[in-house]
């Protein structure tokens, strides 16, 4: 029988390089000595693992040590008040939505929000009004949410309790938060920003402007995604007068463990010191690595890297093979199996890598070498049947919003359900969530009508061996039993 710790130990001894979360990148040797504090050994873990004992405060009623540490986090990010999160950004997002929710209200949400936003709508029985980002030309990724979109939806819907958007997106696209916040506030509506992937924006004035600085009312950061902190560590920042802070604190106590890990909280504390003391210099190194990778790959003829210029996160590497005959999944496997480069995610036509302040020059050099070699093979062999160059469909499954039934997420989730093969589910109402993980963005939500086009996209995703969550072992999807009238799948809104 295998044991998880043994498997982890074996893995860290290998030469696989992490272009993925968490942001500490397993603390490469060249960075450990300069971090200022000793690394924990396996044997140390339980010695440091305590509960709320004398002298260590209580996260859910912080009055001493943990209160001061959360105040330090607020100073680092320039927030009025900050809270430690020990179950990732998910707990923060659920708390934020619950704190602003009202009976019979709607939530204005970007369709590319994380599944936790949808779970927040389900729990609080909120109806969804969606914002659909346009696609970034030639890269098959979703772009920005605009203030114009937000203003139009708020004008059309008088019962919206809050606006929720993701910025930066999983692919590193940043929306104009300042303009969006101004638009929401003009309607007296709070703006919640899932900035889970933007915790590093606090490192330097050269980094993209944080949502806190742009006036968002609640901002959630996953410090573990892009900074040297353990998995599950995050922060929630709140400011302004549109959010009831006592209500927010109540929900933070509901959605988080009553026994928060002091190891994780120590990790957040360390990370805040890292940002304060070394943020600017380390961000300069990150930028230098990013710019070097782009410079060294300008000569590629088939593979393309999305530039970090404009409102884009330099820590995200979108590497496209669109038009080459290779799928993103095939590209991902080549990088993993032949070059021992572990990327963050494979999409239909690209792979995603994450750069952080803990990346090394060695990792960048290995990636550039791999991209040059793969690009050369593509150029030599196009077009080619079979092997690594076999053609694959690259349908964008996020370019549409399925038609809504007259049922909200909560109501649909309470109904009796059954499981059907996708082609037999056309016209039926979904009884569950369907999403790829990563990134955890639903392509189908309870209460939405299943169209023929959507089922085709689901089936083609299976052919590409993409990891689709929400289906049964037999590949069936969840629908409402005897869902009544079928609805026209052509009603889906598409980009």
Quick overview:
Helix content is 35%, strand content 16%.
Q: Can you characterise this structure?
A:
There is one protein chain. 35% of the residues lie in helices and 16% in strands. It contains 15 helices and 22 strands. The radius of gyration is 23 Å and the shape is globular. The strands form 7 sheets. The chain has a 7-stranded mixed sheet with strand order 2-10-9-8-7-3-4, sandwiched between helices. The chain has a 4-stranded antiparallel sheet with strand order 11-12-15-14. The protein has 495 residues and is an alpha/beta fold. Helix 7 runs parallel beside helix 8 (177-186) and helix 11 (262-296) packs across helix 13. The chain folds into 3 domains: 44-275, Type I PLP-dependent aspartate aminotransferase-like (Major domain) (Aspartate Aminotransferase, domain 2, 3-Layer(aba) Sandwich); 278-389, Aspartate Aminotransferase, domain 1, CATH 3.90.1150.150; 400-494, Orn/Lys/Arg decarboxylase, C-terminal domain (Ornithine Decarboxylase, Chain A, domain 4, Alpha-Beta Complex). It has helices spanning 4-12, 29-32, 45-48, 65-77, 88-100, 115-123, 147-156, 177-186, 223-226, 245-255, 262-296, 328-339, 361-381, 409-414, 452-463; strands at 17-19, 81-85, 106-110, 127-131, 135-136, 141-142, 160-166, 191-194, 218-221, 234-238, 304-305, 316-320, 341-343, 345-346, 350-354, 400-401, 417-420, 434-436, 441-444, 468-469, 477-480, 493-494. The longest helix has 35 residues, at 262-296.
| DSSP helical segment count | 15
Please mark out the parts with pLDDT under 50 across 5 or more consecutive residues, or reply none: 32-36, 384-394, 483-495
Number of strands: 22
What is the name of the CATH superfamily of the largest domain? Type I PLP-dependent aspartate aminotransferase-like (Major domain)
Number of domains: 3
Query: Any idea of the CATH class of the largest domain?
Result: Alpha Beta
Share of residues in helices: 25-40%
Main sheet makeup: 7 strands, mixed
Quote the average pLDDT. 89
Radius of gyration: 23 Å
